[in-house]
Each structure stands twice: as structure tokens, then as C-alpha cells.
Amino acid sequence: MLNYFANLITVTGTSVILAVSLNLLIGYAGIFSMAHAVFYGVGAYAAALLGLYYCADLMVAIPVAMLAGALASLLISLPALRVRGEYFVAASLGLQVIATTVFEQWESVTGGLSGLGGIPVATLFGFELASPISFMIVTVAFVVLVVLAVVWLLRTSFGRDLRAIRDDETAAGAIGKNVTVIKAIAVAVSSALCAVGGVLYAYNIAFVNPESFTLNLSVLVMAMVIIGGAGTTMGPIAGAVLIQALPAGLSWLPLPVQNIGYLQQILYGTAMALLMIYRPAGLLGKARGKA
Amino acid sequence: MMAQEKVALQLTGVSKRFGGISAANKVDLSLPYGAVTGLVGPNGAGKTTMFNLITGHIRPDEGTITHNGVSVLGLSPRAISLQGIARSFQALRLFSHMTVLENILTVTEYSPWSFLSSGAHQRARIERSEEILEQIGLAHRQKELAVDISYAEQKFLSLGRILAMKANVWLLDEPASGLDLNSYERFFTILRRQLDAGVAICLIEHNLDIVRGISDRIAFLERGTVLDQGTPEKILGDERLTAIYFGETV
Predict the structure, then answer these.
(1) Which of B13, B70, B8, B63 lies closest to B35 in space, CA to CA?
(2) Is 0.95 surpassed by the pTM of this model?
(3) Which residues from chain B sit within 8 angstroms of residue A176, using beta carbons?
(4) Backbone phi, then psi, for B20, in 5-degree steps?
(5) In the beta sheet, which residues pair with residue B9?
(6) Phi and psi at residue A85, to the nearest 5°
(7) Cα separations (Å) of A91 from A30, A191, A214, B89?
(8) Looking at CA atoms only, how far is residue A13 from chain B in angstroms?
(9) CA-based end-to-end distance of chain B
(10) What is the pLDDT of residues B26-69, one digit of tens each?
């Protein structure tokens, strides 16, 4: 039972990293990306390949995965960030579709549909993180680091650049902001942080395949951010916890297993509709007109 | 006010068409340092388009635009602003969900990597932003969100943003609309201080009394064409132009 909860916290922590990193784009830069699962996948595959062929040290895997995530983000940001709003959404959607195909078809690297299995146990400073509890503790530590990194970044001039662009891109350009570069950096930072989640996922499950990095996940992470409250510190955390905890909570109900999935869908749908009516800024979002 | 005649910005033969509509038609216009040039004309005359052409938001079909004698054609709005050409917008375009201080502070942070600069540099930027807020009378509102302050205060904040840019050419789109008499005085005191420092100012304004009061010269635009330019007395005393301005058939 203890291991079950430890694993639940690890999985939830990974989701928190995804939501917090996407919130940097949606909530603070006004960039709606539908390709967040791609960078999660890049991080996971980078960690898996490192673990299988080099070493499973998190202190190696995390920087490498972050770099891979940031570089992969340039594929979308360099051509797509010159356009605004819905055009970027469409471009990111295109990247998501292409990346899923690459994950499935580049068998020599990704293992194709069969994925990569047998990923060794992660290590940190020479200690093997073999037990679910030790891995949970490390995951929570990385969640805290990611959240602190985002909070710090948002308090700097770069955070002001992002919010200026979100509030009025034309005015930001007119006062001398390099809008395209700032957006590209934001996407790179967000993708790098997202890749940290991918590393933790890969070493936790010890297996990666393309099914874990599809458009469904990108939409789910976006839902976490919007439900919790985009543009707030705690909102995406609350959204991720809620969405991960809901299926776990429902599994305790005295219902036939085959009905739980349907109930979950109904609850998600109802919650989304009620939120949009009563709290359009999300659970922890501030009322319209406030920061 | 016309002591200095060095030209800050020169438009020569600038034209821009949107389909069948001529927004600018072979416009020749010069903005001298230390002087206010008023752009007047009826709605749709192409006044704001002129600003958009200067600041690179729209590229002209033909003609040249030079700043201190160097062409700015083809440069991005960012590159043009970094040359010291600043503008305000009719719709203000403030960063609504940032504080009043942040609206100024972010202007002083030129590079995306500004946050890597030393603490002393960062403190200097904050102090300078606070000084600007003092100048525009918003020091007591610095922690408020821009969306939460009054319209007149937002106007001053947009002016403060230009002050923070250290611009040498100011393009002001209806800077005085919506201001009460007291605010006018404060507004124009700030402008006069900048003129004394040698800044070139071009303003679009519908209130002709204000235009007459502050402008050294006026260019009258209609349908993208500069019909005439000269002293306020000459332009505003011209019955033909007045008739056009008020939409009368001549």
C-alpha cells in the first residue's frame, strides 16, 4: 500500500512538472502549445537511451534531457513563433503529429511501437533509487526545484518580458522587445523543464513507448493548467493533482471496474463545464481584470 | 521653440496603398529636433498610418524615411524603437496586468538576458523607473495594476513608457484626449521639458486648440495626401482646410 501511494505521488509529481512548465507558456507568455507531450517524450527517450547504453545517473540524464528538449523545441519555435495565436497552436499540433510518427517509426532509436524496455534503475550521487519511496522523494525534490525555477524566472526581467508580450505583443515590439527571441527562449525553457518530467517517467516505469506521448497527453496537460488556473503559481499544481488523483480516488469506489472509466469521463466533462461557467479563470485563477 | 532646425526624421515621397485606397500619397514631411509637429486632418486621413509607416509596422510602397540621415526602411519596429523613435498608441496598449512600476521597468530592460546583469545594474533600472514615475506623478500608484488606474493616469503611464525609452523622436497619437484641464497642464509641462532637451515631437490630435497651443508647425493630411504644412496660424486659419476638417463640401 505504501508503495502504491509512493508511486501515485511520483506520477502526480511528474504531471505537476508538465503542468507547471506548460503554464510558463500558456499563463505567462500567452503561447498555446499543443505539443507539450513531445518534449516529455524527448526527455523520456533521452533518459531511456542514456540508461540503456551509458549510465542511469539522474545528474547526467536530466541535463542531457533538458538540452535535448530545448533543442527539439527550436524545431517548432524558429518557424512558428513569427506567427501569433491560433497559428502557433496549429503549428504545434503539426509538430505533435510528426513527433508521434517519428517515435513510432524510428525503430533503431526509439524501438518503434514496441518501445524501449529494461531501463535500469536510476541512480543519484551513487545511490540506487530502487524503491518506490526513494524515487518518490527524488521526484518531489525535482518538482520543488522546477516550481522554484519557474517562480524565480517569472520574477526576473525575463518574466516581465513574457507578461508584456502576453498583454500586448505589438506594444512589446514597439518598446524594443525582441518578441521572437523571447518567445523562443520561453518555449526552450518550458520544453527543457518538461523533459525533466520525461526523465522521471522513464526511470519510474522502466519502459517508454510512443503511446505515452500522444496528443491526448498534450490536451490533458493543457486541461490541468486551465482547470487549475493559468497564470498562477499554484493553479497548475492543483490542476495536475486533481486530474491525477481523480482516477485513483474513483478506484476506491465500490463500482465495477469497467464503469470507472465512464464515470471518470462524466466527472471530467461536468467539472470542465461547471468551471467555465463559474470559474472561467480556473480553480485558483483570479477574476477577469486581475493579474 | 524652433531654435534647432536639425532634422530628426525625414519622409520623402512616401506612399502606401491598401487595395484601391491611398493611405499615404507621396508624403514629404520633416520632423526637426526641439519642435512639435502637429498632424491634423479628418478621420481616415492617414495620420495613424503615417506613424505606422515610420515605426515599421507598415512598409511603404515607395519613398524613403530617414532618421538622422540614415534610412530606417525595412527595419523591424523593434530595431526602429532602439534607434530612439518611440510612439504611443491611440488605444494606449499598456501592459494591463503588470504593475505601473513594471510597465516602466520592463522598458528599461532592453535585452532578454537583462536578468543576468549585476545587482547594481538592476537597482539602477528600478531607481530610474521610480524617477520616471515621480516625473509623471504616478509614484504613489506604482504597485497598482495598469488596468486598475484611471484613464488619465494610464495616459501618463504611456508617456512614462516613452520617457523610459530615452527616445529622441516622440510620436504621440491623440495624447490629450480624455484629459481634464489640470492633467493637460501636467502633460504639456512634461512635453515642454522634453522639447527643451531637444526631442522631436510629432502629435496627432483632434482638439485644434491644443494643436494650436503646442505645435510649432502643422501638416494637414487628407486621404493620405499632405495638402499643406506651415505655422499653426497659416494652417488653422485656412478656411478651405477648416472646411475639409469639419467634413464640409468645398
Answers:
(1) B8
(2) no
(3) 78, 81-82, 107, 110, 165
(4) -90, 0
(5) B31, B67
(6) 50, -120
(7) 15, 16, 16, 31
(8) 29
(9) 34
(10) 999 999 999 999 999 998 899 999 999 999 999 999 999 999 99
